[in-house]
Amino acid sequence: MSKKIAVIGAGISGMSSALLLAEQGHELHIIAKGFSPDITSNRAAAFWFPYHVRNDKRGIGWCRKSFAFYVANCGEATGISMKKIIKAAKANTGDEDSWLDFMQPNTVKIMYNSEAPKGYDIAYETHVPLVETQIFLPWLYKQLEGKKASFKKQELLDLHSITTEYDAVINCSALGARVLCNDHSVIPVRGQVVLLEPGFPNHIFLDNQTPSYIVPRKDATIVGGTYEENVYDEKTEKEGLDDILRRAYSVFEGLDKRKIIGNWAGLRPYRPQVRLEREADTNIIHNYGHGGSGYTLAFGCAEDVVKLVEEL
After folding, report:
1. Domain with 273 in it: what CATH number?
2. What is the DSSP string of 217-251?
3. Is residue 308 a contact partner of residue 286, using CB atoms and an 8 Å limit?
4. Which of 88, 241, 262, 264 is the most exposed place for a label (fewest CB within 10 A)?
């Protein structure tokens, strides 16, 4: 039976939840204080990787279901492609291999010593979805518009004030949950990146201990990053950007010849564990706290949201 549903938040968690609910025939109303391109989800490097979710084994299923969604929707129109990724690590840095449990079985090649990138002792090679946010988010909006979803720009200060208007309220408010749910376990983690002219390299590079990553998109090569907890300022800082480039140049010879075309910063909504549950004795379903794994978890979490709505 069709339900009237409000989704709070228009980032990747909200939009993926809205899409899967709309595909079930529900009436969707997306309410957010900001929409693409003026949201953090637009600034994500957005390659599939289990980043800061390894302590939550629910993430294995969420990751794999999202992986399957992206594989099924690869193409120019969606901005999704499969890219080689090389994840590199140095010895004795505590970069344990628990993340391998989240990967597709039998898809990871291990490279030791001389095979690994310059300055690293071991590396892992596989292929993962790369989601070009500047293409994918507009595609998502178009899909929802085609399913008669409505979009309303509004900053909510109280979730319970709208529960009588809808059969279900899906809270995908990310950092907004600090106010909406009085949940101060959600914190901002700022990430800064530099944008280089596109065309090099042709694969994703990741060192998530530093952290350092290089992501080749059509519009730019994204070079990151930083992990700055409890920083609320979405501005970049020259010192951080210079350090990002120094690390990247040390790994990829020739990268320093690429023209710098911009930079940006975004705030990841980190929580020790993703909150995905129905709030007791309400029609509110929470889906927030995905940190730097928003795109990696989005469609797996959205499937669980659909199930919780069916139980109402």
Report:
1. 3.40.50.720
2. -SS-EEEE---EET-------HHHHHHHHHHHHHH
3. no
4. 262
pLDDT digits (tens, 9 = 90+) for 248-284: 999 999 999 999 999 999 999 999 999 999 999 999 9
Q: What is the DSSP letter of 26?
A: -
Residue 104 belongs to what domain range?
Answer: 4-310
**Mean of the per-residue pLDDT values of the chain:** 93
* pLDDT(287) > 80: yes
Do 68 and 306 meet the contact criterion of CB atoms below 8 Å apart? no
Distance separating alpha carbons of residues 306 and 21, to the nearest angstrom:
6
Could you report the per-residue pLDDT of 217-254, keeping only the tens digit for each? Answer: 999 999 998 999 999 999 999 999 999 999 999 999 99
- Domain count along the chain: 1
Q: Which helix (H) or strand (E) holds 136?
A: helix 133-146
